[in-house]
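Try this one yourself first.
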């Protein structure tokens, strides 16, 4: 039985007063939050697998000149391994239908807080490795090129580094601030629903 089924059964099995909030809203919110978080992780892992395979194929085609792109592949796989480890081995919280609906809400709030905490460290575990994977190979290729001091090669390096810096800095801002703010709003909404339930139960 899934955690969602347990939550629904817990709601239906307990005595409570009339609530101002539709319980279906709570169930939909819990379902969407958990499924979206899982789906986003799976999507990112699959994309990074594909990108890593592309970098390896590109490096193998002309290994003497393109070997720096193995670094990019390694950085992608580092992020994949980190995400997979945290998804598979993270502490799992389970509640049965015999627990109160308030306990299920508390569990969801706890999971959201853990996700928010993870997003605060997203730079070191995810963004920095990917940024290095994109920025180091062009820099190494430039340093090993026959004419590294030509204006054309120098401009190509500067523009590529600047492009990647802007992209990953934007991603960092989105994850660090917008993502954490979204989680905070979801936590506040669940806390309001919990308060509504408790008021209805005590009515």
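Now uncover the answer:
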């Amino acid at each position: 039985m899934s955690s969602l089924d347990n939550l629904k059964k817990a709601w239906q099995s307990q005595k409570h007063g009339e609530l101002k909030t539709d319980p279906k809203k709570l169930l939909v919110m819990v379902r969407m939050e958990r499924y979206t978080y899982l789906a986003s992780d799976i999507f990112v892992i699959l994309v990074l697998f594909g990108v890593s395979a592309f970098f390896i194929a590109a490096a193998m085609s002309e290994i003497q000149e393109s070997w720096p792109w193995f670094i990019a592949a390694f950085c992608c796989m580092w992020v994949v391994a980190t995400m997979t480890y945290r998804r598979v081995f993270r502490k799992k919280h389970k509640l049965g239908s015999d627990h109160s609906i308030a306990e299920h809400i508390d569990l969801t709030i706890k999971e959201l807080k853990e996700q928010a905490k993870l997003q605060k460290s997203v730079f070191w575990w995810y963004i920095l490795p990917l940024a290095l994977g994109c920025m180091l190979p062009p820099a190494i290729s430039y340093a090993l090129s026959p004419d590294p001091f030509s204006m054309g090669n120098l401009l190509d390096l500067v523009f590529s580094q600047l492009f990647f810096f802007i992209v990953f800095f934007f991603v960092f801002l989105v994850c660090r601030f917008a993502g954490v703010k979204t989680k905070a709003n979801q936590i506040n909404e669940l806390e309001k629903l919990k308060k509504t339930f408790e008021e209805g139960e005590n009515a």
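Discussion: Confidence is low (pLDDT under 50) at residues 14-20. The CA atoms of residues 17 and 203 lie 6 Å apart.
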